[in-house]
Amino acid sequence: MKSLIVVLVFTLFSCASGQSCSSGNPCQLDATYTPAAGYQCIVHASETICTCPIGFELNRPCRPCTRTNPADNICKNGTGRLIMCLDTVDFGSTYACLCNDPRTNQEAVTLDPNCDLSVTETSSMPTTPSLNCQNGGVPANGFCNCPSGSVGPFCGTLDNSKLCDRIICKNSGACAIRKKAAGYESVCLCRAGYSGEACELTGTAGFCSSTSCQNNGACREEVIGATRNAYCHCQAGYSGTKCEIRHFTCTKPGKFSDSNMSDQGDYFECTPLGAGFRIEQKSCPDGLRFNTLSGLCTY
C-alpha cells in the first residue's frame, strides 16, 4: 500500500462519517463479529458508532485489541507479563492475551485480561498450507486469509471496492482507493506533518541535516506548498521522530510482531549471523496481521 499526503483531509473524513450500516459494512460485522457477541453498527447524527464488548469506536470497526487508544485494549499489562493483545478467533473468543509465563519463561495464551495464567488456552485451529490461495492469500485455520481487495474462498476474485477493508492509517490518516497505471491501489491520505505508507512518520519542519536522524536512519524531505518537512526512515528495530528509540532487539531466532506497527501487519524476522542475529523488517499483505502463535499472516 502506498502513501499520499493531503492537506485538505478533513473533507475526506466528513464524507466517510455516518455511513449507512446496511451498505459498505463500516463496522466490518460478519459471522464472527455479531450483535450476540457485542458487535453492532449504529448511525447517530453524522457518526457511525461501532460497538464491541469493551466499548465503541466512531467511524471505524471496534475490536478488543486494536482500539484507537491502546490503553482501552482488553488485555492489560498491570502484571508486566503481557506480550501482545491478539484479535483472533482461535481460542473460543474474539481476542486472546499473549503473555509471558514466569514459571516457564515461555509464551502462553489466556483469556484473562490481566494475564492470569492459572488457565491457559490452546488453539484448535490447524494451519493448512495445502490450500491454493491466490492474490497473496495466506492459508491458515482451514481457509484462505485474503488481503484487502481480494475475496472468495481462495482469494481468486479481485474487488477494488474492498481495497481499504481492514486498512488502518495512523495519526488520523484516511484510506482511499486510487487508480494507478494498471488497476487500483489503496493509499493512506496523511494529515499535514505526517508521512509513510501508514502515516506512521512524524515530520520535523525544515531541511534534512547530518543530525536529523540517529542510528543510521535515512532522512527524506517532502515539500507541500510552502511547507518543508524532514522525515526519518528508521532501521529495523528503531522508531521515534529521529529514530532515537530502539524498541526491538533480536535475542533469539524466529519471527516476532513489531509492537509499533502490529496493526499494519509488520513483523521482524531474526536469523543467526555470526555471534549475533540478522534482523529484517517484513510486512503481511495489506489488511492481514502477523499472528505471533502461528507465525503466519491472518485476519
Automatic annotation (TrEMBL):
Alphabetically ordered keywords of this record: Disulfide bond, EGF-like domain, Repeat, Signal
Sorted alphabetically, the Gene Ontology BP terms of this entry are: establishment or maintenance of epithelial cell apical/basal polarity; heterophilic cell-cell adhesion via plasma membrane cell adhesion molecules
Query: Which PROSITE patterns would you find in this protein's record?
Result: EGF_1 (PS00022), EGF_2 (PS01186), EGF_3 (PS50026), PROKAR_LIPOPROTEIN (PS51257)
**Record GO cellular component, one term:** plasma membrane
Q: Which cysteines are joined by disulfide bonds?
A: 190-199, 234-243
Q: Where is the EGF-like domain?
A: 160-200, 204-244
Q: Give the signal peptide, or none.
A: 1-18
- InterPro entries recorded: EGF, Notch_Cell-Fate_Det
Which protein is depicted? EGF-like domain-containing protein
What organism, scientifically named, is this protein from?
Answer: Rotaria socialis
